[in-house]
Input
Amino acid sequence: MKKILVTGGAGFIGSHTVVELHNAGYEPILIDNFGNSSPSALQGIKHITGKDFIFYQADCNDNQVFDKIFKEHNIDGIIHFAANKAVGESVKDPLKYYHNNLNSLVNLLKNMLKHQVNNLVFSSSCTVYGQPDTLPVTEDAPVKLAESPYGNTKQISEEIIKDTCISQPHLRAISLRYFNPIGAHETAEIGELPIGVPGNLVPFITQTAVGIREKLSVFGNDYNTPDGSCVRDYIHVVDLAKAHVKAFELLNKKQEGHYDFFNIGTGKGSSVLEVVKTFEKVAGQKLNYFIAPRRAGDVEKVYAAVDKSVNVLGWKTELDLERALIDAWRWQQKLKQS
Ligand code: WQD
Output
C-alpha cells in the first residue's frame, strides 16, 4: 500500500483528504503541529475510516522530523497543506507568514531530495490570480501582484517548487489552486474547526444561524455583479479532497522532472447573497444579516475554468452549493452539541 505523508493532516482540507486517500487505497501518514487544528480531527477521521493512522505532532520547520519520518517509512509521495492561511492576519504579521509558509516548504523539499521522495502535491490558491482580466479564469491567466502576504507566499511557493523540479530530474510536483473550500464530511465527524472569529463567509453564516454570532455582515452590495455582492467559486471540501487523489494518480503516470498546476473549483460563480439565500433555504430559517461596507482586499468576482482539471487531471466536482451548505450546517449543529 502506497504511503502518502500529509502535512497539516489534522486541518480542514487535510483531514478530508486523509479520508479520501484511505478510500482510494493509500496509507496516509499525518504530521500536524495543531497550530490551526485540533486532535479532535484525528478522532473524527478514525470514526469515519475505523483507522488510527500514524501521526506525528510536529512542525514542518523542524528539520529532524522529516529525517525521522523518511527513515521510518518508505514514503511514496507528499501532500503539503501545512501553512498559515488567514489573509487578514498575513497583512498584520507578514514575517510570520513568510517564515512559516516558505521555510517549511524549503525544509520539506530539501528532505525530499535527501531521501529521494519524488512526488509532491502542493496546496495552492486562486489568490495567485488576484482579480482576473477574464472569467472564468484559466491556468494560463497571468499571476498577478498578490493581494496579501498570504497570497504572495502561495505564488512564491509555486515558483520554488517549479524551479526545484526543473533542477532535479526525479522530482515531480503538482500545485492545486483551490477556489473557496466550504462544507464538511457528510458524517459531520470532520469539518472546518472555527478558531476565533471566522474570516470566511460560510463558517460565519453557520455560526450566525446557530446563535454564536449576532448577525452576518455582507461586505458590499455595490459591485458590478448581478445582485451587487461579490462572486466566488465555492467548492465542497470532499470534492476538493478527491482532487488530491487524482493528482497523485497523474504524478505516477508522468515523466520525471514534471511540474503542473490545476484550478480546483466548480466552474460556477455564486454571489454572497446567493449563498445566504441558499443557506436560508437548506436550513429552513432566515439568516440575520445586513449590508456592510466593502472589505479591503476583496476581488469583485473570481471563478474557475475547469477544462484542464477535467481533461488532464480527470477530475470534476460532484457536489453542489446546496449540498455543501447542508453539510456545513450539519457540522455546525454537531459542534454546538459538543
Ligand atoms: C468570500 C466572500 C467576502 C465574510 C479567502 C482566501 C482564499 C481562501 C478562502 C485560503 C467575499 C464575503 C466574507 C463575511 C462577507 N483561503 N464575506 N462576510 O476572501 O474569497 O478567500 O478564503 O486558502 O485564499 O483569500 O473567502 O470566505 O473570506 O470571502 O460578505 O463575514 O464572502 O467579502 O466576497 P475569500 P471569504
